[in-house]
Design goal:
This protein has helices at about 35-45, 60-65, 65-75, 85-90, 90-100, 170-180, 200-205, and strands spanning about 1-10, 15-20, 25-30, 50-55, 75-80, 115-120, 125-130, 140, 145-150, 155, 160, 190, 195-200. It is α+β, with helices and mostly antiparallel strands and about 210 residues long. The protein has one domain (about 1-205): 4-Layer Sandwich (Metallo-beta-lactamase, Chain A), CATH 3.60.15.10. The strands form 3 sheets. It has a 6-stranded mixed sheet. The protein has a 5-stranded mixed sheet with strand order 1-2-3-4-5, with helices on one face. A hairpin with an 8-residue loop joins strand 7 (about 125-130) and strand 8 (about 140). The longest helix has 12 residues, at about 170-180. It is built from 7 helices and 13 strands.
Length: about 210
């Protein structure tokens, strides 16, 4: 079975998730924005073999620790979509602007496209390109687990901000309704901040996207 543990990191309480195959203990970390020693201590405590970094997008609280973690653990960086290249290149400036520890730019080992997949042990997750919050934002969906790691596209009771450079509100709404909702009402999503919810719950109650 694919398992995951979500650990809020950085002053922004960003939901970094460690995902792993419980048979092989092969693991990936999604959005290592910072607090790397905490993340690595949890990996070690569970006896996991950290093999990949997956990124939903390149805002500082999600990607700030990526270059250091990749270097320290010799890990490939998978994602996001190449439309977020300018955000990656601006990571040092983002860190200074928001008072984060120094952050380094990097080049992902593999950019992701809509319809791609990522694999961990025997498990495969589908990649959906969901622009709007950032132009290169992607989501990782496990149909078997009925879980989706959605970064800052959708939250319990809210949606991602679109007032950053190249944010687009209409595009974000389209990403949610056209690419997330078809994953099914029962799918539970892990957002970039705050508690988990389900797509069905948000379709019924979220004031930004209900009844869409």
């Amino acid at each position: 079975m694919l398992r995951y543990l979500t650990i809020p990191v950085t002053a922004f309480a960003q939901n970094c998730s460690i995902v792993w195959d419980d048979q092989t203990l092969q693991a990936a970390v999604i959005d290592p924005g910072g607090d790397l020693d905490r993340l690595l201590a949890e990996v070690q405590r569970r006896g996991l073999k950290l093999e990949q970094i997956w990124l939903t997008h390149a805002h500082i609280d999600h990607a700030g620790g990526t270059a250091e973690l990749a270097r320290r653990q010799d890990l490939p960086v998978i994602g996001p979509h190449e439309a977020d290249r300018f955000w990656i290149e601006a990571l040092p400036q983002q860190g200074a602007m928001f008072g984060f520890p120094p952050a380094e730019a990097f080049t992902p080992t593999r950019w992701l496209q809509d319809g791609d997949t990522v694999s961990l042990g025997a498990h495969t997750l589908n990649v959906r390109h969901c622009p709007g919050h950032t132009p290169g934002h992607v989501v990782f969906h496990s149909p078997d687990l009925q879980r989706a790691f959605v970064g800052d596209v959708l939250f319990a009771g809210s949606i991602g901000r679109t007032d950053f450079p190249q944010g687009d509100h209409a595009m974000l709404i389209a990403s949610i309704t056209q690419r997330l909702w078809p994953m099914g009402d029962e799918t539970v999503f892990i957002p970039g901040h705050g508690p988990e919810s389900s797509f069905g719950q948000e379709r019924r109650t979220n004031p930004y996207v209900r009844d869409r």
